[in-house]
TrEMBL record:
Entry keyword annotation includes Signal: yes
Span of domain P/Homo B: 271-389
Protein name: Secreted trypsin-like serine protease
CDD domains reported for this sequence: Tryp_SPc
Record-linked Pfam families: P_proprotein, Trypsin
Amino acid sequence: MLLTKILRSAVLSAMTAALVIVPAHSASAAPTSAQDEPGPRVVGGTRALQGEFPWMVRLSMGCGGAMYTNQLVLTAAHCVGSTGNNTTITATVGVVDLQDTSATKVKSTYVHRSPTYGTSTGGDWALIKLATPITGVPTLPITTTTAYDTGTFTVAGWGAATEGGAQQRYLLKANVPYVDDVTCRDAGSYYSDLIFPAELCAGQMATGGVDTCQGDSGGPMFRRDNANAWIQVGIVSHGDGCARPSAPGVYTQVSTFASAIAAAAANLGGGGPTPTCGPFTNNTDVSIPDRGAAVTSSVTATGCTGSTSSAQVAVNIVHTYRGDLVIDLLAPDGSSYRLKNSGSDSGDNINTTYSATVSNETRNGTWRLKVQDVASADVGYINSWSITL
C-alpha cells in the first residue's frame, strides 16, 4: 500500500508499497528482532516458509510480483516505466531470504505496462519479460471470474514493517478480509474515487493492524479456489498509509483485466496461459426421448471476463446405445457447435470431456447442451454436464 493518494498517478510510478502486519495496540508488543536476524520482524504476522509461495518474485526497483508464466512476471503498472525494451530490472525468485545464495536472479528484457493505467478505467498491472525462462518454479494462476473476489485473502511481501519503515530481508505473509466497494469508498476522502470495476479493497476496518505498505507494490493478493489451489485475485496497488483503522488496502481487480493480461502475455511470447472460467454445472436429469425431438439442458456462466475461442464440455449421459446420439453446444448468442455425431458405436453411456472451438464467444450468458436420439430402440437421459470457458 502506498502512502499518498497521488500514487494513483503515473508520475510516481517508481514508488512502491509494502507488507505491514502490526497489532492494533502496538505499545504492548514484544520487541522485534534486528533487521538481519532470522526471527520475524513483524508482530502479529508470520514469516513465510521456504517453498510456501514459490511463485513470489522480488524486483530490484523495490516491488513485488508473481510468476505468471516461467518467463513473465505480473506486477503493478506503477512499479515500472513505459512499455518497451528494459534490461534494468532484476527478478529474484525461489527464496524467502533475499540474502540466500541459492536465489535465482534473472534480468528483464521487456516491460508491458497496462495502457489503461492512470485513466478512469483503471488497470494498475504490468508484465515483465525475463531474459530466460525460470525452470522448476510453479506459476500463480490468475482468476477470470469475480467468484473469488470476496472472502479472506492472503498477501505476502518483503516490505516495511511500519509505515515509512525500511523494507525487509524475509518474506512475510498475512491474511486480510474483503471490504466491499461501498464501504471502502466511504472510508474517507482518500477512497472517494475508487474504481469499482477495477479495484478491490481488503483490510481490518475496525482495528487496522494488518495491511500492505511501501515495498509490497506489485505483489499478489491470493486465495484458495474451489479446487483448493492458490489463485491470484489482486495486485498490491495503493492505500491511505499502512495498517491504519478504517483505511483498507486497494488492489488491482485481476478478474477485470485477465483477458488483457493474457493477450499481452501472448504478444510477449512468454508462454502465457489461457485463463479459464468455471466450471458451471447442471446436475438435473433430462430424459432423452427415443428417436424424438432434441432436448436441452442449460447453465449460466456469470462473473467471467471477455470472450473465449475454446470451451471444455464435460458430458455425463446414461444411454444404452450412445451411437444414436447427436450432441451440440449452443452458445449464448445461439451459435451451435457440434460435439458428437451419431454413428455405429454400440457402447453404453457417455462420460467424456469434449474440447470445442468456438468463435470468440462472450463467456457470460446461458450455454445449452443439446442432445438428440436419432435412432430407435434405446433410451436414456442427460445425467449432468458442465462447461469451462
